[in-house]
Amino acid sequence: MYGIVNKSIEYLVKTNYGEEKWDAVKLESGITIDFFVSSESYDDDITYKLAGALSVVINIPVHKVLEIFGQWWILKTGREKYGHLMEAGGKNLKQFLVNLPLFHNRIMLIYPRLTPPEFRISHIEEQSLHVHYYSLRKGLKEFVRGLLLGLGQMYEVPVTVEMIDCRENGSNHETFKVSW
Amino acid sequence: MVTSEISLGNEQLNRLFPFYFTLGSNLSVDSCGIGLLKLMPACVGCSFTEQFSFKRPKDIIIDFSNPSSVCNQLLVLQLNNADGNLLRGQFELIPSTGQLFFAGSPWFNSMEEVNKAGLVLDDFAYHDSLVDLLHVLKTKQIDNEDLQELLTKVNSQKKELKKAAVELNEMALFPMQNPDPLFRITTRGNVIMKNPAAEKLSSFYYKGIPYAHDTFWVFLATEEKHIDDQWSFETYSGDRAYSFICRNMPGQDYFNVYGRDITQQKQNEEELKRLSLVASSNESGVLFTHADGSIFWTNEGFCQLTGLNTNEIMGKTPIELCKGSLTDKSILKKMVDAFLKGESFNVELLHYRKDGSSFWGRAKGQSYKKAGTGELQYFAMVEDISEEKEKEERLKILSQIAENNINPVIITDKQGGITWVNKSFTEMTGYNLPAILGKKPGHFLQGPETNQLTVAYMRGKIAEAAPFSAEICNYTMEEKMYWTKINGQPIHNSNGELTGFFSIQENITREKEIQTRIKESEVRFWLALEKIYENAWEHDFRTGKTSFSKSSNEFWGYDNNELNSNTLLWRNSVHANDLHLLDDRDLGYQSGEIDSHNLEYRIIHKNGTVKWVMDRGVAIEKTKNGKSLRVVGTHTDITKIKQTETELEHRVNQFKSLSENIPGVIYEYEFRADGTEGLRYISPAIERVLGINQGDFNHYVDYLSPEDKSRIMHKNELCRTTLEPVYDEVCITIAGIGMRWHSFHSSFSYVSQDGAKVFTGFMMDITERKNADILLRANEEKYRSIITNMKLGLTEFNNDTLITYANKSFCDMSGYSTEELVGKNSVSLFVTEANAAVVAQQRERRKNGGADSYILQVINKSGEPKWWLISEAPTFNDKSEQVGSIGIYLDISAQKNLEIELTEAREHAEQLARTKEMFLANMSHEIRTPMNAIIGMSNQLAKTNLSIQQKFYLDTVHSAADNLLVIINDILDLSKIEAGKLSLENIGFQPKNIAARAIQVLSHRAEEKGIRLTASSFDQRISEVLIGDPYRIHQVLLNLLTNAIKFTDKGTVDLVFTLLEDHETYQLIEVLVKDTGIGMDELFVQQLFEKFSQESDSVSRKYGGTGLGMSICQELVDLMGGSIGAKSKKGEGTTISFSLPFNKGGISDLPEKENIKIKEGFLAGKKVLIVDDNELNRLVAAVIVENYGALIIEASGGEQAVEYAIKQQPDIILMDIQMPGMNGYQATDLIRKKGLKLPIIALTANAIKGESEKCIAAGMNDYISKPFKEEDLLATIAKSLGTKVTFEKGKPANGPHDDKPLYSLEKLRNISNKNEAFVTKMVNIFCEQTPILLADMLDAMRSSNLEKIGNIAHKIKPSIDNLDIHRLKQVIRDIERTAKEGNHTALHPLVAEVEITLVNVIQQLRME
User: For residue B115, which residues of chain A lie inside 8 Å, CB to CB?
Assistant: First the structure.
């Protein structure tokens, strides 16, 4: 996972819970890295440990932490760091989501050491579509849910995200129905 | 050479080059891409030069005649739009149109610009990497920011580290916690650091000049700059002295200053200096002499005293300098002697000055040894004491005055010892001075009458050295008493030290005698007062003192000592709230406003109780202005009077409060002596209660109704004469309020002084109670009416169960009249003996206060039995004692009768159900018996030679019999299931085989109809062995498949096995039977599983059947713990699915089937006794066993059977059970009793559970049910006879078998013209090669090599056809096809079927 992800978690904790909580999260996770460089590649385990530690420190379940983090990623990290790029992704939520696969294919070229997830879009309706999420990583589906919710907030559209299939059910990927 | 020309449509062009444009030869924009249109919406048709300009290279001119001028190079075009966007690309000439084509894309420096231009990702061609470049750029930018942040962090950490190192160094050089002051001063004198001790130093006193803190260091650094590395100085700061060491710090622009507090050291030095100064500046003369008396040092004081200068003094002796004519020589000698002995001296001598004048000097001298040399030297001091000497003289004069005073004077030393007395003293006392010198005056002057308190007082004053004044009784030397007033005062010397006392006395003996006489008269007066009052007192306003007459003052609780020693004690005992009375009184006296008083106030007795006192007084001494000086008075204890008063007042208040607050009116009514009467008193509450004022109510009769009025008048008259109490309730009408009910109650109280008889009474408003009474009565009436109208009987009883009331309904119910009921015991009237206990029990409950309902059968007056629903509850009086019960009755005889009828009907129905069961059992027997004959006989018939016509008839019979048997079995199954008598097997089975056999059994039927019967999918995850009832599953499958085939005219019937849930110990399996048949209406689907349901009569007519099949399926699936359902659409087909849970099993759980081979003729010579009342059945059995060589004996009943068994000695008996007369059980029993042990096999058509056990219990050896299979019968007989039969422990074999041969060699025979050698050879080849091919196929199956499976199937197919293995003909083709289609899942059941069937075929072939 690139450093920017861990930086974003750090940013989330410091902004919402203060420096002391971030220190507590680091202590809980056992991570001793002082500074995450955005374009450096870090072990995925670090990110999972940070999320797990945050869950313990602020006493909310890990899946909720991931969901919050997904929203944060879009609304803070995405907007602040790549605001214009995000804006170019689409004029509205639907267009952005339809462009999502293309977006990640581009990212793969830009971050050569990144194994970005792959997205596919189907069942495109007026008020909903299906987002298919393929990833080698496990356990980030709630992060994806957060991202999708975050996108809704970014476009100021009330959105519901329903996971209609997942790897636990024997599928090879997760499918979210996004309705707005 | 190959040339390729690509032409692009408009859409493609837009997708690939959204920002393209074409230019015509007139330089107009002919067309442009959708992307460019977003940037320049109106560019088409416009001139190129209007819309674009060349940014790089500049100054390009488009020349169509020379296209290369613009082609083949990178161009940067600027759009002439608001943002001046750039396009980056190139031109290309299109020869076919002569246009210039621009291919390129906008160039932005950031995504922000992209957004600003209104573009999104979709506007760029996928191959266009601009956005990605911008993304990379952004990423790099973020990286840079990160790195900068990291660098800042590292730098800050580096700074922190440096800072920490410097701090450590500083701590060593500049310890802040040092208690001594430390400074760090720059070379310019600026203080850059100081420790807390240094902070306290705000100013410095250096070299006599005060400096402020800052100017000092500037001065020191600039003015007193030292080039040495270290220097020091001393200075003062406040009252402290410091020594500072300054140290230059090498290489630094500052020096450190280390201070030390040297105040103590300085003080010591100062002290020394001061002492020498004191010595030199002493006013007394100080001299130091050598041992010979010559002066070697003197001070200024001595010079001044003597008027000599130092030179005149030095070397002389003091005697030489100061001796004069009047100097006392003896004292001089004393001094010289001491001097010569080296002793100290202290003398007073008249000293002479240089000018001849003299002064008294006290000379003190002391020798000492000079340090170092040990020489003896003298130190002497001369003090001028001339003034002292003068005072002594003055004292002498004063003594003269005292001596001659007319009043006696005594002077004592400070201990009180007499040092002097004057003449008057000796004259008055008779003592002379020498006799009393040194004695204390009290010792000889005091006598028996002397007041010791006065003596103590004087002693105290003397001890304090304070002046005193006292009157005391003394005695002369001749012991004559006299009174004297002494004024004494201490005498102090000039140093203020007490030296003694001086006292002057006055003889007051005469005044004292007069006072005594006055006192005696006063005492008498006081005594008189004391006798009369509790206390007599006197207050003197001048002294502020109050004295009391009684020594022990019980009134206050204090004695006089206590009161006198604390003058305010009595006043403090006065109640705080009453003190003002005393203050007012005192003010009155002192101002002259009053000269006597009379007060009542409270005092607090010493024991804490409160007493009321009457204080009376009068002034007995006044000033001329009439202001009182002395007042005497008395105290009278009036506590009891006060208490009584208070109590009285309290009572009055209580009564008032009571009469005003009780919810009624209190009154007094009087019958006067003159014969009149009326209200004497009425409490004010009358206004509140009645709204009438007290006066108006005197005419109370006006408020009464005429009726009440006359009654009340009458009662009043009675009261007057009898004085009896009176109670009544009247309705009072008051204007504006209306009618109110009031009760009044009065009784005789007293006779008044004027002779009136007074009644005291109480009146209260009872309107609410009255209204409630009325309401209660109305309610009671209402409920009685309800009860009556509802035809509910109501009775009331007393505790002896005697009826006290019965309503009309009860009379109607019971047939008795009210008169007949009241006073009668209800139990004896209605209750039968049988129910007496029930009633008694209920009565008992009633006694405990319980209410309850119960049903009771009673007898009415006519003697008819009636059913009553009785609800009884106890009734209570106002003391909560039970006084009886109340009962409500409802006649429920009609309902009760109905209930009884219903019970009878239910019992009848149950009886019918039992009969039905019996009927079914009988029917089973009755139908199966002929069926046995039909099937058995037609089987035998089939073995004979028959014409084609006969064979056809026989087939028809056989088929009809089979169908009939199915119907019978259906009905029987159903009734068994309903009766809960169907038991399930719980054995291991192979689900794959179940599927395969079901298909196998029905495949020919499907074939006949020309439809495909397949098992397209068998889930490989299903456990190889499951535990359950394979027969019932097979039955369900057959039923469903049969139905599916029956209702399908074309297409497919498919069987699918799927694993729904896989648990550790069990699996949930779903089975689908899908067909493409006629389908059903949705409505019918809902009732599909109901019994006897067929969609329509026409269906029933066309397809036959009982309509029980699906119902049985459902019952069976239910029994096995599963569920079944159906989906269907008319005309499109039906899918029936059922799911069942099974425990997982292993191969070891599979039952082993014994395959029996019976040799022909195995019954040769054996006598078989066939017992059956039905001739047909006997025939069937006989035909079968005869074929195997048995000799037949037939018996048509039990008795005959027993007879033949004994007489004919058969080898075995086949015994029917249900026979008229003696049945099978009884016959067997008898046979066994005769001691016969031959095997008896029961043949029974009773297919009911438990039959076999009954047979064995009756002594039979085995059991077989009709209709039976021939081989089953033979096997059972063989087993019973112990005949050797071949048991082949075979492979798992559950489920029924297809009767049709697995294969046929006919085809091979036909091919080879019946050349058996060829046939054998072919068979051998088949048997050898097939297992190999089969193994290959299974391997391929495991490795999912579908192609190979297809190939093998293709190879095996001819052999299957040639051997006519009909079951596999279609299957092998399905495998070939399915393999090609790549449907791996569907292959499993097919391959499994091939495997099973081929193994069976090979086995059978090898046996041939």
Answer: 84, 87-88
